[in-house]
């Protein structure tokens, strides 16, 4: 898939899979490390060293999830991290933001994963794939698909296998980690409950479509 030309104030659905279908998250620590990277790498200022973004085992230290108030590369609208792949819906807000953000995410996380698991080589199938979200209707559809992607892959019974921004939309008071700018989606609905009902219905339709024509379902969203 050819990546689009990225532009400021435009939205993009980016996603990637583990090479040869392998897991990119072997445990919850890996997933939390990736979420930490989503926060730390999202700054126009250069990140000097990967050692500076190490994951803190001390649960009292949440500073890396709340970096200093510097200019962002992108606004993260929503995300879902599954066992062997991830989805992120984002808006570019700085020149070259998507490309730089994704380079840091994939490169930085691969370095961490290979170091931790004593392996070498590629972790992901490629750099990443991206689709330009060209209409508001499509933006809403993709937000539902990404937020609830764990349901598409029937992972909801085992929280250890995924992390999603769904709680940031459904019940932000229960979400300890806030990475997303939810306003562009939620402002289009009367309240959170209305959006959640919309998203759940949209994903049920996607699941139904996958069961009858998986290839068509992937072309529709991915």
Structural class: alpha+beta
Task: Specify the biggest β-sheet.
Answer: 5 strands, antiparallel
**CATH-level-4 superfamily name of the domain at 11-135 and 158-182:** Transposase IS200-like
Radius of gyration: 17 Å
CATH topology of the domain at 11-135 and 158-182: Alpha-Beta Plaits
Q: Tally the helices.
A: 8
SSE string, helices as H and strands as E: EHEEHEHHEHHHH
The coarse silhouette is globular
Q: Tell me, what is the CATH class of the domain at 11-135 and 158-182?
A: Alpha Beta
- Separation of termini? 10 Å
Would you identify the regions where 5 or more consecutive residues have pLDDT less than 50? 55-64
How much of the residues is beta strand, in percent? 5-15%
On the 0 to 100 scale, the average pLDDT is: 86
Q: Count all strands and give the number.
A: 5
What portion of residues is helical? 25-40%
The CATH architecture designation of the domain at 11-135 and 158-182 is: 2-Layer Sandwich
| Strand order in the sheet with the most strands | 4-1-3-2-5
């Amino acid at each position: 898939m050819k990546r689009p030309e990225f532009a400021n104030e435009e939205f993009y659905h980016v996603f990637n899979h583990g090479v040869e279908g392998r897991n990119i998250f072997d445990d919850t620590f890996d997933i939390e490390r990736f979420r930490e990277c989503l926060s730390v790498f999202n700054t126009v200022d250069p990140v000097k060293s990967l050692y500076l973004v190490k994951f803190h085992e001390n649960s009292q230290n949440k500073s890396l999830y709340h970096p200093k108030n510097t200019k962002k590369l992108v606004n993260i609208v929503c995300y879902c991290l599954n066992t062997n792949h991830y989805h992120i819906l984002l808006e570019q807000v700085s020149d070259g933001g998507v490309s730089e953000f994704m380079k840091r995410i994939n490169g930085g996380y691969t370095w961490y994963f290979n170091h931790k698991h004593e392996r070498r080589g590629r972790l992901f199938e490629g750099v990443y794939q991206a689709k330009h979200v060209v209409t508001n209707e499509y933006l809403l559809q993709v937000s539902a698909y990404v937020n609830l992607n764990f349901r598409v892959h029937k992972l909801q019974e085992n929280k250890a296998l995924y992390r999603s921004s769904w709680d940031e939309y459904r019940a932000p008071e229960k979400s300890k980690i806030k990475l997303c700018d939810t306003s562009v989606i939620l402002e289009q609905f009367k309240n959170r409950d209305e959006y959640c009902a919309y998203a759940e219905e949209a994903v049920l339709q996607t699941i139904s479509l996958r069961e009858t024509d998986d290839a068509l379902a992937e072309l529709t969203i991915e």
